[in-house]
Amino acid sequence: MKRVLVVVEQFTVGGLETHIRGELVQLHGHGCEVHLLAGTPFQRTLLPDCVSSVTGGVAMGVDCSAAAMVEMVDRIREVIRSRRIDLIHAHPFVSLVPAMVAAQAERISLVVSLHGPASLGGYAGPVYDFMIKAIVLPQASLVAAVSGEVAEIARPYVADASLIVVPNGVEFPTQVSGSVEDEAREPRWLVVGRLDAAKIGGMLDFVRKARSAGMAGVRIAGDGDARAALQQMLSDEGLINGVEFLGARSDIPQLMRGSAGVAGMGRVVLEGLAAQRPVVLVGYDGVKGVMDAGLLQLARHTNFSGRNLDTVDADRLGAQLAALGEMGLAAVVEAAAEGFGEASIWGQFLDQTGVLQPPQPGILLELYQSLQRDPLPESSLFFHSEAIVTRMEALACSSRYFSARMHAALQVCRQTLAAQGEITMLRRSLDAAHQTIDARDVMIAEFLKSASWRVTHPLRAAARALRALADPAARYGYALLRSVYWRLPESWRYWLHVQRTRYVALHWGVGREVVEPLALPAWVAKVRSVDKVVVITCGFEFDELVNQRPINAAKYFANQGYFVLFVAWQWGRKDELNKGCSPVWPGVHQVPLFEFVDMHGLLPPKQANALYLLTMPARVLVDCVSGLRGKGYTITYDVMDEWQEFFKSGQAPWYDRQVEEQLVLQSDVVCCVAPALIEKFSGIRNDILLIGNGYSEDVIGRNHRGIVQTSGTAQSVVGYFGHLTDAWFDWKLVFDLAVRHGDVRFEIIGYGEPQWVRDRARSLDNLVLVGKVHPSELNTYVRHWSASIIPFVEGQLSRAVDPIKIYEYIYFGLPVFVTGIQHLQSYPGVVWAARANAQTLFASFLAQKPVDPGKVESFLAATTWDARFNGLVHHLRQHKNIGDLYGL
C-alpha cells in the first residue's frame, strides 16, 4: 500500500481545496493511505473522512521566520516517520520549499503541483522565486502542471521527462441527461469564486451582461477581502438589488444543480458541467462566453481561466445561451467527462508515480541544517532576509554545489532583494512624513482651541476688516463678506446660505471651504443641544431584542442620560438600512455609517462627557478618530472579537491589522472581552482592561431566571443556541457525543450549518437541528434542557471568544460543557475540556452535582450589562490616558 502525504500552505474553502479533496478521495479509492498536512488558515469543511491523519495549523506563510521554516520541515519529517510515508505531494505556495527539504532529508519521492502561473514566482519575493525555479522544480521527482499553459511556463526549469499535466478533475454523473430545465428550481444563475481583487472585475461584467441578456438574477457563492469592493461597484451601477451574496459555502454541488446556470472560472466550469447546468466562463477581465465543445477545447489550455480569450457582449451571450439547447449541453458534458473525469485523472497520476526517484540532497537541505546549528534571530524572515541569501551563496560556492547558473541566479536574487529593501525604506520615510504632518495638524487644532487664541480672536477679526477696507480691490471681497456673514443671526445665515455657497464656488473654487448644509441633520442638531453624548459603532442595525454588546452599551448609556448615536454598518453608500436614520430607542438615534462619516465634522466640541466607542476596527471608522478627538471626545476601542481570525475565515473582509494596531495605540482606553485578546496586544500596550460580556434580564425574561432548576426535567436533554458555522463550531465532536450517548437528546438551535451537517443529522435520532428561534422564545426550549454545551474548535478564534450565551445559560440555571474557550472554566457550573479528553469528561459532566446557588447569584450580580459598563465608565472617569496629553 502506498502512503501519500499531501502538503499545502492553507486548507479552507475554494477551488484548490476542492482539487485536493478529490485527490485524497480518489487516491484512497485506488488503495492508497492518504494523509494531509496544512498551514494556517485551516478548516475541515472540505476534508473527506478517508484521510488517515490530519496535521493542521502549521505556521506556513510568506512572512515566516527562519525558525518557523525549520519548524515546518521538522513537522513534515515527523509525519513522514510516524506514518511511514512513501510519497509527498506538495501544492503551492510556500509549502513547496519545506516539502522539498523534508523529501531530501528523508529520502522519499516528491511531486510538486503547479496550479497557475503564480505558482512559479511573484508570490513571496525574489528569494522564493530563486528557490522554486533554481532548486525545487529542477530537483523534484515529478512536476505536475494543472494545464498546458502552466507546463509551458515551467518547461525551462524542469526536464521534459519529469513534467506532466494533471488537470482539475471532477466527478461526473454516470448518465448525462443534458436537461437544461428539469432540475432547475432556482431561476437565478450562480456565480462561484473567491472574492479577491483579481476576480471581481470579471464578476461585475457578468452581472451587467446577465441583466442585459435577460437572466432572472444572480447569486454569488464565495467570499474574500474584495467582497465589500464588489458590493460597492454593484451599488454604484444600480445592480445590487439583482444580486444575492451567499458567502462561503460547502454545498456548492447542490447549489449548482438547483440553479438555472453556473458562471465562474477554473474548476467551477467543470463542476457546473458535472451538475449538468449551462456554464458561462468568466475570466478575470470579463465574460468569455457559454461553454460549448469548441470553447471547452480552447479554454482548457489555460485551466479555464479565460486568459488570451476574447470577451463577448450581452447580445452574443444571449444568442449563445439560446443556441446551446439540451443536445448541445449534453455534448459538452460528455466531452468534459471524458477529459476531466476525477477517477481517470488520479488513476493516471498514480501510475506515473510508481517508479519515481527521491530528490538528491542539495542546497536547501544544507541551508536547513545550517539553520538548525546556527539559528538566525527570530526577526529574520526566511523569504526576505539577506542573511538567507548569504548562506546560500556560501553553499553555492562549495565544490559540491557550484554551478555558473546557480551563482548568476543568486546574484539576481540579491540585487532584487536590495532594490525591494530600498523601496521599503522609502515607504517608511513617507509614512514617517505623514505621521509628522498628522502630529502638526493635531497641534494646530489644539492651538486653535486654546484660551489665548479665543481671547485674541476679536483683535484678529478687526485687523482683517481694516485690511479689507484699506484695499479698494478687496473692499467688497471675500474677507469682509465672510467676517460680516458669521456675525449675522443664525436665522439670517441660513436664509443667505444658498447665495453664500454660490459666491464661494464662483470666486474661490468648489471645495475651498467646508460649508454646513442648509438644514442640519436631526441627530447633529440634537448633539448640539445635549451635555452628554456617546457614539457607538456596530456591525448591524439596532434591535432592542437582540442581546449583543453594542446594543446593550447603547441602552446602558441612554439610561445614564447620554444621547447615543448608534452608527450602523453599511457595505456601500447605496446600502439601505431597514430603520434608516431615525430614533430607535429612548435616547438612541441610529445613523447610517456613511452619513455619520460625512457629517461627523459638524458635531460641536465637547468639554466633557463625550465618548467615541468603537467596536469594529474598520478604516472608515478609525479615520474619524482624529476629528472627534479634536472635538473633545474620549476614544475607546472595545475589542469584542478576534477580528484577524474572522478575516481569515472570510467573515470580516474590511479588516486590516495595521489599522487595528493603530486604533489600539490611538485610543484613550482599550478594553477586551477575553484574556487572549489582551495578550495579543500586550506587546504594544500594557494598560488594557478586561471587560467581559454580560446578560440582560429584560431581553431573556425576568421571570425565566433559573427555570431549569425549577422545571423538574426528567429526560437528559443537552442544548445549544447560537451561530452554527463550522469555522468554529465543532460539529465532529457533537456528532461523536450524540453517537456515544444515545440516551441523551441533543437540541441545536441556530443557523449557518453547512449542508453536510444537515445530511449527517438526519441519520441520528437523538440529534435535532431546531433552526433559528427568536431570543424571546428561547425559554420554551431551555426549560426542558438538563444541560448546555458550547462545542468550539480549539484555535485562536475560540480562545478570544467570550460568548454571550454562557451568561444566558447560567442565568437559566444550566450547567455548561465547553471546548475551545479555556478561560470560561472559572465560571460557576462550567466544565471545560480539551478536545483530546472531551468524550471522557462529558460523561462525568452529565452526572455532576448542582452548582452552589450562592456562587451563581454572586456571578450573575457581577455580570449584568449594567455592571460591565459601570466598570468601563468608572475607569473613564478616573483615567483620561492619552486624552491627558491633549489637555482634554
Tell me the major beta sheet: 8 strands, mixed
User: Can you list the strand order of the major beta sheet?
Assistant: 16-17-15-14-18-19-20-21
Work out the oligomeric state of the chains in this entry. Answer: single chain
**Helix count, DSSP H or I runs of 4 or more residues:** 39
What does the radius of gyration come to?
Answer: 31 Å
The number of domains is 4
Report the uncertain regions.
Answer: 178-184, 471-476, 507-515, 883-888
User: So what's the CATH class of the largest domain?
Assistant: Alpha Beta
State the helicity in percent bands: 40-55%
Which overall shape is indicated by the principal axes computed on the Cα atoms? Answer: globular
Mean pLDDT: 84
Beta fraction of the residues?
Answer: 15-25%
Q: What is the CATH superfamily label of the largest domain?
A: Glycogen Phosphorylase B
Domain Glycosyltransferase subfamily 4-like N-terminal: 13-171
Organism: Diaphorobacter limosus
Protein name: Glycosyltransferase
Describe, in plain words, how this protein is organized in 3D.
The protein is an alpha/beta fold and 888 residues long. The protein folds into four domains: 3-169 and 357-396, 3-Layer(aba) Sandwich (Rossmann fold), CATH 3.40.50.2000; 186-338, Glycogen Phosphorylase B (Rossmann fold, 3-Layer(aba) Sandwich); 522-690, Rossmann fold (3-Layer(aba) Sandwich); 697-863, Glycogen Phosphorylase B (Rossmann fold, 3-Layer(aba) Sandwich), CATH 3.40.50. It has an eight-stranded mixed β-sheet with strand order 16-17-15-14-18-19-20-21, sandwiched between helices. A seven-stranded parallel β-sheet has the order 3-2-1-4-5-6-7, sandwiched between helices. Strands 10-9-8-11-12-13 form a six-stranded mixed β-sheet, sandwiched between helices. Helix 28 (675-681) links the parallel strand 20 and strand 21. 42% of the residues are buried. Mean pLDDT is 84; it is low at 178-184, 471-476, 507-515 and 883-888.
